């Protein structure tokens, strides 16, 4: 895969282009994240980037349960949602400005505290890319703004496949090996997992990532699941910490 830290920077830049062009009415428009406006989503991204910075400094407590994290996110947004759009954009830019470089600077083998467990800097960068991509969809879709899929989805698809054992465990399922053959936005085929696995998922990488982000129901996607654990894998697939 291409460098995750460069691709995280590219994702920030793609979203920045969208945010910089928003009108005041668009900032206050409902997003696709239930109960949140576009401003709320950007505030959440800024706050979560600030948590990542705290992790890099060794100041983040963890692990936490999903319920705790969801409640904290809602409370944090509610407490600060009166920030003006210009100030909010400046805050998000400040929070993201040095993240790729600071994550890259950590030596191989270093672990950083994150929500449910400790992560490598590269994996934390992948989660940040995945969250920004998913919330970019929450912002752009209701506003009718294009947000094209890119090759950066490969990192997100890798994360979804890599964490399948964890996702099975969280749902109390035995699970099993799953091979994924996903079609990239440019038509290239991406493979994850053992080709000889008894279960498989095939189809568009964009759909795979959207299902993992809970932005698309598996039944509404163009993905095909086969084998004893393919359908289960689609049901538990997630591109995030829980």
TrEMBL record:
InterPro entries: DinB/YfiT-like, Maleyloyr_isom, MDMPI_metal-binding. It comes from the Bacteria. Transmembrane segments: none annotated. GO terms for molecular function: metal ion binding. This is Uncharacterized protein (TIGR03084 family). Residues 9-139 form the Mycothiol-dependent maleylpyruvate isomerase metal-binding domain.
């Amino acid at each position: 895969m291409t460098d995750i830290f460069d691709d995280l920077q590219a994702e920030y830049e793609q979203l920045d282009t969208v945010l910089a062009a928003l009108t005041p009415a668009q900032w206050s428009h409902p997003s696709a994240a239930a109960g949140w406006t576009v401003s709320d989503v950007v505030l959440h991204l800024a706050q979560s980037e600030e948590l990542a910075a705290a992790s890099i400094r060794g100041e983040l407590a963890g692990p936490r349960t999903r319920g705790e994290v969801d409640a904290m996110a809602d409370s944090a947004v509610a407490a600060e949602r009166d920030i003006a759009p210009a100030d909010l954009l400046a805050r998000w830019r400040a929070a993201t400005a040095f993240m790729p470089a600071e994550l890259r600077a950590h030596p191989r083998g270093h672990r950083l505290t994150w929500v449910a467990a400790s992560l490598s800097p590269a994996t934390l960068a992948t989660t940040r890319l995945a969250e920004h991509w998913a919330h970019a969809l929450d912002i752009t879709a209701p506003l009718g703004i294009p947000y094209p899929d890119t090759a950066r989805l490969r990192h997100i698809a890798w994360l979804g496949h890599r964490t399948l054992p964890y996702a099975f465990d969280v749902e109390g399922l035995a699970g099993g090996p799953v091979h994924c053959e996903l079609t990239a936005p440019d038509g290239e085929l991406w493979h994850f997992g053992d080709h000889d696995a008894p279960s498989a998922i095939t189809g568009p990488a964009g759909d795979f990532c959207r299902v993992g982000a809970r932005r698309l129901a598996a039944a509404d996607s163009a993905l095909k699941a086969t084998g004893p654990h393919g359908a289960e894998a689609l049901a538990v697939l997630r591109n995030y910490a829980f």
